[in-house]
Design goal:
This protein is α/β, with parallel strands linked by helices. It has helices at residues 2-48, 117-124, 141-150, 180-192, 212-224, 240-246, 265-282, 296-309, 320-330, and strands at 61-65, 71-75, 104-113, 131-134, 154-161, 199-204, 228-231, 252-253, 284-290, 312-315. Strands 3, 4, 5, 6, 7, 8, 9 and 10 form an 8-stranded parallel beta sheet that branches. Strands 1-2 form a two-stranded antiparallel sheet. The longest helix is centred in the N-terminal third of the chain and has 47 residues, at 2-48.
């Protein structure tokens, strides 16, 4: 019977070792989970300490040329009011099942179309409404207009105008030394390349948009031909608003940022988010980018569904008159 009595003791000892091993494995598992949580928390703290992208202040701008023919407009933006909620305007939110309330209308205008059709093509495949502004009297002006129309986007005239700086605005430009007859002749030639256009905005033009006499001629021509003028706001000394009022015309201006003051993805995304804050505050925002910015199409494609999910709507300049009326009627 000694062997029968010893056998249970060996069994009890084996069970004790098994329980001990299970406890050790359970302890190891807890330690692994704790280590993983520490890694995640450290990563989040590191990311939260990264400094935000510094945005240049909306409003007055200055102009300079990029290498080659494509110009760049650099803006000093007016300060954007912070999001009243205290958080980022476009923070990632959990997807709500109900349709989000409309927070504002976003209008993107892409300038400097006409130099390179390969630069244009990525913008034509973007989802949603888009306004593309075409420079006149270039070899690809008419073909660009055709491509934009066929893609279902909106084409407008990007009217070259003399700048205060010594910049060549390109063919089909208006200069301060011109007579009214010469201004009319230039504009007639330019709109003939873009049949049926409803809008134009200034390319460069800090000198012309601050010249009341010439802007009276430009807007008189626009009024006669049922064309709206968008002030791109390349100078804080613009007299376009007073000229429009003198002719009984509505005034339209860029009220959002230029998107490519700093040509990098992080800065462009920050400009778009700043524009979304303007739209939420004023009902709409007009932001201007440039066709030569290779990062911009990809950023717009990526951010489009995100902005829609957050309650923003996209539109073109054609919607602007009604948006301005609504904004003025509400007194915002």
């Amino acid at each position: 019977m000694e062997e029968g009595e010893k056998s249970p003791k060996r069994s009890s000892r084996g069970k004790g070792k098994g329980r001990s091993n299970r406890r050790l494995w359970a302890l190891y598992g807890v330690l692994v989970v704790i280590a993983a949580l520490l890694v995640v928390i450290t990563a989040e703290l590191t990311r939260s300490r990264q400094p935000p992208v510094a945005l240049p202040p909306l409003g007055a701008t200055e102009e300079r040329s990029l290498p080659g023919n494509a110009p760049e407009v650099l803006s000093r933006q007016a300060p954007v009011k912070p999001d009243p909620s205290g958080g980022p305007a476009l923070a990632v939110r959990s997807m709500a099942r109900e349709r989000p309330r409309e927070r504002g209308i976003l209008i993107f205008v892409i300038d400097d179309v006409g130099y390179n059709l390969n630069e244009l093509k990525p913008f034509l495949s973007l989802p949603g409404p888009l306004t593309l502004s075409i420079l006149p009297q270039l070899p690809d002006t008419r073909r660009a207009f055709q491509m934009i129309t066929e893609a279902g986007k909106v084409a407008i005239l990007h009217q070259p105008m003399e700048a205060l700086a010594a910049i060549n605005p390109g063919p089909g430009a208006i200069y301060a030394t011109m007579s009214q007859g010469q201004v009319d002749e230039i504009l007639t030639q330019n709109i003939a390349e873009l049949p049926g256009i409803e809008w134009m905005n200034n390319h460069e033009g800090s000198k012309i948009t601050s010249d009341r006499a010439v802007m009276d001629w430009v807007l008189s021509f626009a009024k006669e031909h049922h064309i709206q003028f968008l002030d791109s706001r390349t100078t804080s000394a613009s007299v376009v608003e007073s000229a429009a009022q003198g002719l009984g015309l509505p005034y339209f201006e860029r009220n959002g940022p230029f998107l490519d003051d700093s040509v990098n993805r992080k800065a462009i995304t920050a400009y778009i988010e700043a524009g979304a804050q303007v739209a939420e505050r004023e009902g709409y925002a007009i932001m201007i980018g440039h066709v030569w910015d290779r990062d911009l199409p990809g950023i717009l494609s990526w951010i489009y569904p995100k902005l829609l999910a957050e309650g923003f709507r996209f539109d073109t300049l054609r919607a602007l008159p009604e948006l301005v009326k609504d904004h003025e009627s509400t007194g915002n």
